[in-house]
Amino acid sequence: MSPYDPSAFPAFAVTVDLVVLTVRRHALCALVVRRGEPPFQGRWALPGGFVRADEDLADAAARELSEETGLCAHDPKAPAPGNGAHLEQLATYGDPKRDPRMRVVSVAHLALSPDLPAPRAGGDANSARWAPVEALLNQESGFVREDGQPAQLAFDHGRILADGVERARSKIEYSSLATAFCPSEFTVGELRRVYEAVWGVALDPRNFHRKVTGTPGFLVPSGGTTTRQGGRPAQLFRAGGATVLNPPMLRPEV
Amino acid sequence: MSPYDPSAFPAFAVTVDLVVLTVRRHALCALVVRRGEPPFQGRWALPGGFVRADEDLADAAARELSEETGLCAHDPKAPAPGNGAHLEQLATYGDPKRDPRMRVVSVAHLALSPDLPAPRAGGDANSARWAPVEALLNQESGFVREDGQPAQLAFDHGRILADGVERARSKIEYSSLATAFCPSEFTVGELRRVYEAVWGVALDPRNFHRKVTGTPGFLVPSGGTTTRQGGRPAQLFRAGGATVLNPPMLRPEV
DNA sequence: GCAAAAGTGTTTAGCTTACACCCATGA
DNA sequence: TCATGGGTGTAAGCTAAACACTTTTGC
A37 or B205, which is more confident? Predict the structure, then answer.
């Protein structure tokens, strides 16, 4: 057997699926698209698509993200963040029966984005929307949305979403990743509300303020202030160069 | 275009590659096999192989691990650990040029095992050995082993190994995973030497002892004692049911 | 006895927590 | 004036780091 013989190994289709998270109205939300064709026609699914023949996995994920949201994924190593989203590989799902049509291995990616006006449909999806992850993850308990659509996601996307949410929840503990949910300029209170939405807890505003402003390199003041949240004007910050938080932000027990 | 048409998407080969780590003679070591055929013939590589047509990714990784080492990967959820190794998915590597022959996507897995007598060759590898990761990771700086073989690993396996080592180093901070490097019964000192080997640091034996014995569910005394390390007899322990360490073990700055 | 490794006790410093308190704005 | 969110001060409690000290074996 020659190692160059394509018949010597099974052929797989490879896709990328995206867990795109954002914080909207104090709730952690994920981008879902309605499937326009079988299988799972009419059901909600994570955005994604086939990896092209000469495309790297990260490039395929960035392309799908751009097609679905218009966001530019920004390389964590790039100097200018711009209006980009954080994008990282999450995990790979390859159960032989995960797609009834054929053998598909999906390399899931996790994207974190600031709140966007509204998702625009793209590719073969005929509609797209932000949905609170809490509702989507209640799929196991037979949750049904108010419009009568079952919330159960297509394929194994419920599991993929759960893994992505768990990754996001744990990663903001020890990294500065929570700033990826914020616009380029934000206040300490806005950043705190991100943590509260992602973790589903309430944090002490005073201790949170001391913690994030006291961690060198986490936040840099941009000079301006804002009163968009009401109350006393708050300083505006940008994300600093630090990527790890040491000591980490502690997630309350419940 | 029908979604069932195989010509509608590119075909990929999918492999699993294994980062198998152990601690031998106070050094973190990885299992490498010598390649018997091109490309990279004669070079060291990580063990791995093609995923079969109806095989899950985790099953393929467990099969390769068993073929190369005789270890049984044990599901973390299984009740009886036995003589099994820890096995988890690491990351997926799919650069279009990572294999000169064809488009191969590799789903890398990380395995942690107690010290084994000697690796046995299996599959198409004509030899296998444990190599200190420090030597393997110095490949970038033109490191050459004492036998004249360049240590540079085949394909992108140097990067995969580096990612696996980093995962292991960070994961023993906040989980009980370090016990996967120990035999079923071990002393606190032996566990400490695992941490010291993986992190490459020296830890205070007194504070380490208090830390691990004071964390509920981490270690359970097995009743026996041993003097195999010399000095005063040490209590023997087994890994307890706890999988997370809270608060975590702190890695010194270096 | 001596070396070596296992354990215990104690002090100090840093960090988290909880909460009292003041500040600056819009309505 | 009052409600609202921003921001500072401070004392209690927990943890880790550093290290003196005792215990129990082999040689």
Answer: B205
DSSP state of B182: S
Please count the helices (runs of H) and the strands (runs of E) in chain A.
5, 10
Under the banding of pLDDT at 50, 70 and 90, the label for residue B68 is: confident
Percent helix, strand and coil across chain A, each to the nearest 5: 30, 30, 45
Tokens of residue A44, six digits:
């909600």
For A115-172, write each residue's pLDDT tens digit. 987 666 554 446 899 999 999 998 655 555 555 555 689 999 999 999 999 999 999 9
Across the interface, whether the CB atoms of A105 and B14 are under 8 A apart is answered yes
- The gap between A175 CA and C10 C1' (Å) is 35
Q: Do residues B212 and B137 touch, judged by C-beta distance below 8 A?
A: no
Q: What share of chain B is helix, strand, coil (3-state, %, to 5)?
A: 30, 30, 45
How many CB atoms lie under 10 A from the CB of residue A105? Answer: 24
Distance between CA atoms of residues B145 and B142, nearest Å: 10
Q: Contact, B65 vs B73, CB < 8 A?
A: yes
Does residue A55 belong to the interface with chain B, where contact is any CB pair within 8 Å?
yes
Contact of A201 with A251, CB cutoff 8 Å: yes
> What gap in Å lies between CA A58 and CA B221, rounded to an integer?
47
Rg (CA), chain B: 20
CB–CB of A245/A174 below 8 Å? yes
CA–CA distances in Å: residue B226 to residues A62, B188, B189, B223: 56, 11, 11, 10
Tokens 């192989």 -> residue: B49
Q: Nearest CA to the C1' of D21 belongs to which residue? A: B206
CA dist B244 to B87, B175, B216, B217, Å? Answer: 16, 4, 10, 9
Pairing of strands B13-24, B27-34: antiparallel
Chain C bases under 7 Å from protein CB?
3-9, 15-21, 23-26
What residues of chain B lie within 8 A of the CB of A251, using their CB?
none
Question: How distant is the alpha carbon of residue B13 from its chain centre?
Answer: 24
> Is the per-residue pLDDT at A7 higher than 70?
no
Rounded to whole angstroms, the Cα distance separating B214 from B221 reads 12
CB atoms within 10 A of CB B169: 16
CB within 8 Å of B105: residues ≥ 6 apart: A12, A14, A57, A105, A107, B12, B13, B14, B15, B92, B93, B94
CA distances B80 to A52, B72, B112, B181, Å, are 43, 12, 17, 17
Token pair in block for residue B64: 């390769």
- Where are the alpha helices (H) located in chain B, listed in sequence order? 57-69, 133-137, 157-174, 188-199, 205-214
Which of B4, B13, B95 lies at the smallest CB-CB distance from A9?
A: B13
